[in-house]
Design goal:
Elements (H helix, E strand, L loop, with lengths): L1 H25 L13 H15 L7 H14 L3 H12 L16 E5 L6 E3 L7 E6 L11 E4 L2 E4 L4 E6 L7 E4 L6 E4 L6 E6 L11 E4 L2 E4 L4 E6 L12 E4 L6 E4 L7 E6 L11 E3 L3 E4 L4 E6 L1
Antiparallel strand pairs: 1-6, 2-5, 3-6, 4-5, 7-12, 8-11, 9-12, 10-11, 13-18, 14-17, 15-18, 16-17
Length: about 300
């Protein structure tokens, strides 16, 4: 009697193990090519699982995850593009970042491993700027990285992607990660203006970002691109149009195309105004949607 009972127990255990394996396979994320069909929670889940599978169980860095979510919802990156970029970032060396990825010469990767200082020589002359943080450790200019003529230095675990410093008239990116405040120095001496919001958190001047001479401060999760605040240039420097989406409904406002293509000069609403998502330009009109209220004018 004991032998048949033992066999039954073994069969039951094998069935449970097989069922567990099937369940584990079932947790592998299925994702459509168009990840925007998914909720942000599901986007986070499938991207995290894909990174874990490619890196043999490692957790995706928060900054890299935020970057992918931005690219999905702002730049329409497909799931194949995300998987390809994860593979390139891991570099095929058991989950370590590739210090020399294929490059078009516009950016360079510089990494402080184990907290040690690392010097990198970019393929350009002059100052450099951080365009993408890749590490969990903060990359803050003057605190964990610095730039000199033809040289970048990183330390204290900062790993980032750098590009050539912009001249006056260009843009810089300044980001508040984890809701913490951050001050970014600008390559121009005057005040700055927001040109493109990158975060889902609202960037409202005076609340979550502000400009001073030669620097921009962001906080409360605001991540955006900034340019010099100019007082004159093409078109009328005083020309602007305020357009408001009331009750989250779409609204169009007349815009004089002779002034040049509009940009978001000031976000008035707490709801984020993101070009292509909650505001846009059709040639003679500015449109706003999803609660965006902003002031628009020429660059």
């Amino acid at each position: 009697m004991k032998k048949p009972l033992l066999q039954s127990v073994l069969v039951l255990l094998l069935a449970l193990v097989a069922g567990s394996a099937v369940a584990q396979v079932g947790t592998r994320a299925y994702a459509p090519e168009n990840l925007r069909q998914l909720s942000v929670q599901d986007q986070t889940r499938v991207i995290s699982l894909e990174y874990s599978e490619q890196s043999r169980g490692r957790r995706i860095p928060d900054d890299q995850l935020r970057f992918y979510l931005d690219q999905v919802n702002r730049s329409n990156w497909t799931f194949s593009r995300i998987k390809q970029d994860i593979a390139q970032s891991l570099g095929g060396n058991s989950g370590g970042w590739n210090p020399n990825p294929p490059s078009n010469g516009n950016t360079i990767l510089c990494e402080s491993k184990s907290g040690d200082a690392k010097r990198c020589t970019p393929p350009w002359r002059g100052q450099s700027r951080l365009v993408r943080q890749l590490s969990n450790s903060r990359c803050e200019e003057g605190a964990t990285w610095s730039s000199q003529d033809g040289l970048i230095t990183v330390w204290k675990g900062c790993r980032g992607e750098f590009a050539q410093g912009v001249a006056a008239g260009g843009t810089i990116r300044c980001e508040s990660t984890d809701g913490r405040g951050r001050t970014c120095r600008t390559p121009w001496s005057g005040h700055s203006r927001l040109t493109r919001q990158l975060s889902s958190a609202a960037c409202v001047e005076g609340r979550s970002w502000q400009s001073q001479q030669g620097q921009v401060y962001v906080g409360n999760g605001c991540r955006a691109e900034f340019a010099p605040r100019v007082g004159s240039g093409g078109g009328s420097s005083n020309y602007s149009v305020t357009c408001s989406s009331e009750d989250n409904r779409r609204k169009t406002c007349a815009y004089d195309p002779r002034q040049g293509r509009p940009i978001l000069l000031q976000q008035i609403s707490n709801t984020s105004c993101r070009e292509g998502y909650s505001w846009g330009y059709t040639g003679t009109q500015v449109w706003v949607d999803r609660g965006c209220r902003g002031r628009f004018g020429p660059r």
